[in-house]
Amino acid sequence: MTEATRHTPGAPCWVSLMVHSLDATQAFYAELFGWEFAPGPQQLGPYVRALLDGKEVAGIGRLPADRHLGVAWTPYLATDDADATVEKIRSYGGTVGVGPLDAEDAGRLAIVTDPAGAVFGIWQRGALSGTAVYGTHGTPVWEELLTTETASVSKFYQTVFGYELEPVVSADFDYVTLHLDGHPVAALHGVGHALPRDRGTHWMTYFEVEDTDEAARRVMELGGHVLQPPRDDAGGRAATVADPEGAVFTIVRTAGR
Fold first, then answer.
1. Among 104, 55, 76, 57, which Cα is nearest to 13's?
2. Quick check: 129 and 192 in contact, CB under 8 A?
3. How far apart are CA 137 and CA 95, in angstroms?
4. Residues 15, 75 contacting (CB under 8 angstroms)
5. What residues have CB less than 8 Å from 22, skipping those under 6 apart?
């Protein structure tokens, strides 16, 4: 387990999930990832922080009973000034759904949508800088935007967050890695007609696991679903799964572990 340091502006720094049944969702992830839970900021309703060895990993909140929204993991990108970033997002074709607002003393946040419709958050650190550990079972390891094609959104993310773009030069593989200070932090993946119609353009969170095949079996035992069975790729051995409420994520044992 490695403790995270201060997150560079633009880097993914937190993941959060809003669900209908908070208790059942906590039970699922506690069994799958070994998470424990502590109360978090309550501005948007009941909310808990997921912990590993007492250190923050992610957040889970409860949706209002009258809100019939899709359940999905949402990545947050770090910023030094949430209000200025929100204005930039608006200026370059994005929209703002929530905020900016203070989450008690934890920090300042906004939930926004890029020009292609993908939802993500921005986070200005306060007492909480973001995910505090990585590199072990149950920690977020990668964020990837799935979209029809990358050209239309890469300029937005580059302009707003200052990413250096590293595209894959290939006629049949549309993939752009986003770099900060020379280090890869996330990616854009154009999948054309393979993009799920019921989800549209969306961010996919990858969680590190000790054993991808065993974790996929555990997902099913706990009432979730395996959408893409374990497979080997350049990043490691991965499977795409959904929790019992339908939140989709990828589990991966990264290459080299």
1. 76
2. no
3. 34
4. yes
5. 46, 48, 60, 61, 62
Give the long-range contacts of residues 212-217, CB within 8 A, separation 24 or more. 212/236, 212/237, 212/238, 212/239, 212/251, 212/252, 212/253, 213/237, 213/239, 215/32, 215/239, 215/251, 216/241, 216/251
Closest alpha carbon to 101 in 131, 123, 134, 130? 123
Is the distance from CB of 63 to CB of 21 less than 8 angstroms?
A: no
Alpha helices by DSSP H, listed for the chain, are: 22-33, 82-91, 151-161, 212-221
Residue 145 to residue 203: CA distance in whole angstroms: 4
> Do strands 202-208 and 225-233 pair parallel, antiparallel, or not at all (unpaired)?
unpaired
Over residues 54-100, the pLDDT tens digits come to: 999 999 999 987 766 679 999 999 999 999 999 999 999 999 999 89
Q: Report the amino acid identity of residue 208.
A: E
CA-CA distance, 188 to 243, in Å (whole number)? 24
pLDDT digits over 195-227, tens only? 988 889 999 999 999 999 999 999 999 999 999
Q: CB burial class (10 A; 0-12, 13-18, 19+) of residue 227?
A: middle
pTM (2 d.p.): 0.95
